[in-house]
Amino acid sequence: MSPDEIPPPPRKRVIMIGVGGATCSGKTTLAKYLKGILPRSLLVHQDDFAPPRNQILIHPIYKMQDWDAPAGAIDWPRLRQGLQYIKDHGRMPEGHKSHDHLNVQELVGVDAGVVERWRERFAGTDVGAWHGEGQAQGGEIQWVLVDGFLMYWDQAVIDLLDVRLFLRVPRSELARRRHARHGYHTAEQFDYAEGTLWRDPPYYFEQIVWPAYCEAHAALFVDGDVEGRLKEGEGVKVEGLVELDGGSNPGDMLEKACPKIWEVLTRQREIVLD
């Protein structure tokens, strides 16, 4: 066979999983556990698409930088473009960097048996395997996890997600967790130089974080009550939203999230076989 006759490799079928929730709801921890379960998966942090620190807007009332306002906390054009690239190509955009490794995270123990059981179930789950040997025209599955505190605000981002997980934690517990945090490294910094760490000013959660969360998520809830019931039925902003208890052990969340992910994988199988 000549080089011109060699067929191109099969296109990867990207399954993109959104892991959303308020700051300190446990979404990044859950996303990292899922990354350990789903083979060859990529993890994208929405925070890595925040504007540079000198472009963060000043809150009009409290006169401090507002890192949480939905319209300004994320560079939305860059995030949409980045996720679309990943969706189309099955890989990170050239030159993409993450600062997540700079942020200290509290790890919560999960029963190793839960992780191993789901890891074994998802192992080898590429589309080609469903065709039989020599029939891999469907391409392999590329899992992509996207975590962020504004995951369900922008409709273009929502529409790219095949699975939509949403962690919920009561306001009082979110406040406790946020106040206990050491700080956050800003998106444009990739070293430990002086000035790279953002620390919350007094009352930042109460005056900035929580009101911004309410603004960004009111449309998901009945009567806009973010501590009430999620909307259901036709015409909801986020279809198929899977509600998870962010106050529970991540193992319990995995037991609810993984079957939903498996359902989407099964639908992909049906599409290929059709």
Automatic annotation (TrEMBL):
Keyword Calcium: no
UniProt entry tagged with the keyword Hydrolase: yes
Superkingdom assignment: Eukaryota
Residues spanning the signal sequence: none
Protein name, entry field: p-loop containing nucleoside triphosphate hydrolase protein
GO molecular function terms attached to this record: hydrolase activity
CDD domains membership: NRK1
Keywords: Hydrolase
